[in-house]
Amino acid sequence: MITTAAAYHIPVLRQESIDGLDVQSDGIYADVTFGGGGHSREILQRLGNRGHLYAFDQDADAEKNIVNDDRFTFVRSNFRYLKNWMRYHGVEQMDGILADLGVSSHHFDDESRGFSFRFDAQLDMRMNRRGGITAAEVVNTYDEQRLSDVFYLYGELKNARRIAATLVKARQQQPIDTTGQLLHVLGIDLNAEGEWTASNAQSSIFNLQSKKEVTRLFQALRIEVNHEMEALKEMLTAATELLRPGGRLVVITYHSLEDRLVKNMMRSGNVEGRAEQDFFGRVAAPLRAIYNKVVTPSEEELAANPRSRSAKLRVAEKVISDK
Description:
37% helix
């Protein structure tokens, strides 16, 4: 598959997120989810000669979209190591950090990656294919309780225990290595037209009229494989520490788990949402939300890019120094 920056991913809420970042011409910024580079290119257009942009991505495919610009530095790494890499580059404070937490359309459309149930592919789901466990390893090696926890915590699936028990029983007969095998074990087959049908093996665990639960199942596996919640917590903490007073944190979320962490950080200064108070009872949070409500895609954007329908944009400003 040949991938170009234009085809890799359509940036979600591009104008709104860049406006929220309030780019200063001589500022230091980070796009910690580079992907196809759509957001990065918008930031670079607003930077002057003294400004600089650091872009993070752990996916080797994203490197094909690297920008040839002296004001641009690409970091091949997970964004959880943001603070370490900024220290390596001699950056102590930053003017803005942007994160688009959604999985790119490139990942869903690449049949070999296993992110989508539209294709029968190997259960991989790794953002960084240079290492780490695959979704197949999770499905075939986790015990029933651990699998159930993954599906309940990261997919918010009420039937998590039943799903886990079904997978554990099925893998005793043969490994579950592909998305097609995973769906079949859970009672779903795809016909030649790509429509869902009940498997001959058993009645489906899921409602065949709705793909929402299966989407959550795949989401849960992807989050576990890529340690997404742990990485997000570390990045948000590092971003809060790195931003200079007046610096902006801009985050686009797509599901309630990550949005809750972002909202907590912007309201209280920690991902747990614990409001710490000073001697006078005032909440001592290092960030201040810029918008009273989350920003969501316009009707025009939803029509042009249906995958943006669950996107939420949150913007906060650093208000105090870390001391």
